[in-house]
Design goal:
This protein is mainly beta. The protein has helices spanning about 55-60, 75-80, 90-95, 155-160; strands at about 15, 15-20, 30-35, 35-40, 45-50, 65-70, 100, 110, 115-125, 130-140, 160-165, 170. It has a single domain, classed as Pnp Oxidase, Chain A, CATH 2.30.110.10. This is Flavin reductase family protein.
């Protein structure tokens, strides 16, 4: 039997994404966010509060990078979700992580995160109190240590983790359990 829980943002897993931007003065700002992801083959969507420093930076610079956090940097990733750039402008420096300027967009690339999407703003949407940024993926950077022998990203090497919206936990992504567009193929024959 199922129990009604009301209106809740209960999907699992939720990504742990790091949005990196430059402030007006060139300061690196990184924000941890879960309410976003791929929305087309070359587009990402980010749903963030418009009062975040990151939102202000995106509006002014027209670009951002989006990285997957890994377990080795869980504390720093969580810190980026706790601290606000509006009140703590040196939060990136406090993290001890390192950033370089993207070669493709006006945004920083955090060197420690294993995969980074370099994005330029394609569209900004405002509705029902939401601020949504649609970004065009200009390039993807991947640390060589997460690539397989064919040069593709191996998810098992990312050491990524996801967010649990139910109880606010983080969970390491586990082993492969099936093959997309194949595991259910036998049911097509019925």
């Amino acid at each position: 039997m199922k129990k009604s829980l009301g209106v809740k943002p209960y999907l699992f897993p939720m990504p742990v994404l790091m949005i990196a931007t430059y402030g007006e003065d060139g300061t690196v700002d990184v924000m941890n966010m879960a309410w976003g992801g791929i929305c087309a083959s070359n587009l990402v969507a980010l749903n963030i509060d418009e009062d975040h420093k990151t939102a202000e930076n995106i509006k002014k610079r027209g670009a951002f990078t989006l990285s997957v956090a890994d377990v080795d940097h869980l504390a720093e990733a969580d810190f980026f979700g706790i601290a606000t750039g509006n009140k703590m402008p040196d939060k990136f420096a406090r993290s001890g992580l390192h950033a370089v300027k993207s070669e493709h967009v006006d945004a920083p690339v955090v060197e420690e995160f294993p995969i980074t999407l370099e994005c330029k703003v394609a569209e900004v949407q405002r509705s029902a109190g939401n601020f949504r940024v649609v970004g065009e993926i200009i390039n993807v950077l991947a640390d060589e240590k997460v690539l397989d022998e064919k040069g593709k990203v191996d998810p098992t090497k990312l050491n990524a983790f996801v967010f649990d919206q139910f109880q606010n936990g983080y969970y390491k992504i586990g082993e492969k359990c099936g093959q997309a567009w194949n595991s259910g193929a036998e049911l097509m024959k019925k």
